[in-house]
């Protein structure tokens, strides 16, 4: 049976998507790095990530799809188009997770794209462009900073060597961790970084409360807010807790505390706590870490988000100023770890996603993304968009993260219709 994508009604494409198969695959994937609390700890380039990649490659090979990999470990699975010389339409997300992450962040987008490839195969769909699933390396950034590492390197936003030089908390480099991944995933065809892509669509859980509150199954993503990460290291001197007068201490914790209090005040959103500015300190360490010694070193992370790139930049400047001026008598160094500019997706892709949803008679709303995604960088290379499904209680980066089988299935059906349309029709005249 063959069906030419341009002539196939949306309902028929969507009917080829198998919700049960997709859900089973998601649950199988969630076993790699599963936690006692029902979530996932599958940090980038870890043994759990290697096992998850092996599983995906196994499924792809069983289906006869070709598998490609690039120098940063991004993984591509391809279904051929009638014109193999055309750049592929690509869809996917990431398989790595937060240390106390959920089963759906990233995995949904990868496996929904894989389900689309299988559905198109089952249907015998004929499309001009090849269609590929991608699993980007290290989107989360919790082990190796920056996050979105695979898509940043692929798109040229981060030099490969700088990414590979990143180290984790144990001092292991991404280079060494990636070598272990490569050794375990053999016979992958090489793919050059930056190989052209004709269009990119990423399906993802919303990770926030908006769709659930609106009672809508589909979010048509209009863009993504900007993000900045810093690591602040405050250096003082250790001393005896019982004998050293406060006046002669260089206490790194107290200096860090002053800096954080000033950041909370200076970066407070003018609209109050419901406003768009988001400041998070997610990691904080002290050395030597002893009850009865004054801390000599405090190191903490800053995650800063704002939808407006100009305002985000102004807030980032304040972070650097405050760290530099409030550390005395200690010293503070402020190391930038990640810069992701805010991104608006092209209307044409946004409209195409909205149209795919409408063609299946599904209600949707347009909304921006609060979380960053690989799509933010791939948008530099080609027309890009995203599809959201609801997250229960708006929870994500949490073991309790959940989207129902029905919500997962619905998102995958919309993705299938949008991908088929892109693969049939996208022309080089489309501008990113
Ligand atoms: C992605 O995981 C983010 O932190 O937005
Ligand atoms: Mn994600
Ligand atoms: Mn995430």
| Number of continuous helical runs | 13
Instruction: State the low-pLDDT regions, or none.
Output: 427-432
The largest sheet, given as strand count, sense and whether it forms a barrel, is: 10 strands, mixed
Bound molecules: glyoxylic acid, manganese (II) ion
Helicity range? 25-40%
Distance between the termini: 35 Å
- Gyration radius over CA: 23 Å
Instruction: Tell me the structural class.
Output: alpha/beta
Q: Count the E strands.
A: 17
The helix/strand order is EHHHEEEHEEHHHEEHEEHEEEHEEHEHEH
Report the portion of residues in β strands.
Answer: 15-25%
Shape assignment: globular
Mean pLDDT level? 96
What's this entry about, in short?
The chain is α/β, with parallel strands linked by helices and 432 residues long. It has helices at 10-15, 19-29, 47-62, 107-123, 149-155, 160-165, 174-184, 210-214, 252-266, 309-326, 347-359, 375-378, 405-425; strands spanning 3-4, 66-69, 75-79, 89-94, 125-126, 131-136, 189-190, 199-205, 218-224, 226-235, 278-280, 284-287, 297-306, 331-340, 343-344, 364-369, 384-389.
